[in-house]
Amino acid sequence: MDEPIPVIRAVDQGIARLLPDVDHAHAWLLTVDGAPQSYVDLDDPTHLEFEYARRLAHVLDTAAGPGPLDLLHLGGGALTLPRYAAATRPGSRQRVVDADRQLIRLVNEYLPLPDGSGITVRAADARAALEATEPSSVDVLIADVFGGTRVPAHLTTVQYARAAARVLRPHGVYVANLADRAPFGFLRSQLATLGAVFAQLCLIAEPTVLRGRRFGNTILAGSQAELPVAEIARRAAADAFPARVEHGCALERLTGDAQPVQDGAAVPSPEPPDGAFTLG
């Protein structure tokens, strides 16, 4: 049987590479311009290689009731989290929005979704698609949108957060993958922004990131309902790279005097330092 070979293709946002995992016959790493975007094991969609993906899944697993869900994913990549949700919550209806039309085609060609997955994917701007979504139609909204290695500015504002809250059901949860480093100017602004819209927030991050020792991913969840902070913390602490969950007064201290971001004053998340997310 022939060994899988890497696939290299120009997509809308750069050069995409699908790299086979030599230790797993049907597992692939997706990078764009050298930055890791997704890891997918077609034989086991519940396997989440990246820590940030596991932390998103902790929120998905614990913050929503059992059974099928209506999910909206802003940012698709290789569809790691939609595949995970389809496997762990069969019968869920999932919509995925990604601005990179060529990347969608690449993933569909080489990493196709199984029949009956309940996942639909379309090319569109994340905020435009969000604003066109029916109110109170989504149980969990997962935002994992990076233009290259930065969260786009128009997905960081109070107006965007209000659009996210509008589409969620009363107990719905918004969860976002962000990235920053000390002194956390971007993260603090996002805490203030989401805190102006959602009644409950929690933050998941590795202690080394929170202590300012390195640039890294942080997961921020918001809801109008109470979040299962203790269960999320238990799961995050059990990961191979344990993470800490902050909420309540700890988040208020971290937010400090940061102000919510308004349309017209927004900027993308900070540029990662050289080598932070780049392979080889």
Main pleated sheet: 8 strands, mixed
What distance lies between the first and last C-alpha atoms, to the nearest angstrom? Answer: 28 Å
| Envelope shape | globular
Tally of alpha and pi helices: 9
**Helix-strand topology string:** EEEEHEHEHEHEHEHEHEHEH
Instruction: Tell me the strand percentage band.
Output: 25-35%
- Major sheet: arrangement of strands: 7-6-5-8-9-11-10-12
Please provide the count of β strands: 12
Rg on CA atoms, Å: 18 Å
What is the typical, i.e. mean, pLDDT?
Answer: 95
What share of residues is helical?
25-40%
Q: Are there runs of 5+ residues with pLDDT below 50, and where? A: none
Keywords:
alpha/beta, 9 helices, 280 residues, single chain, eight-stranded mixed β-sheet, four-stranded antiparallel β-sheet
Sum this structure up briefly.
The protein has 280 residues and is an alpha/beta fold. It has nine helices and twelve strands.
Task: Please describe what this structure looks like.
The chain has an 8-stranded mixed beta sheet with strand order 7-6-5-8-9-11-10-12, sandwiched between helices. Strands 1-2-3-4 form a 4-stranded antiparallel beta sheet, with helices on one face. The chain is globular. It has 9 helices and 12 strands. The protein is an alpha/beta fold and 280 residues long.
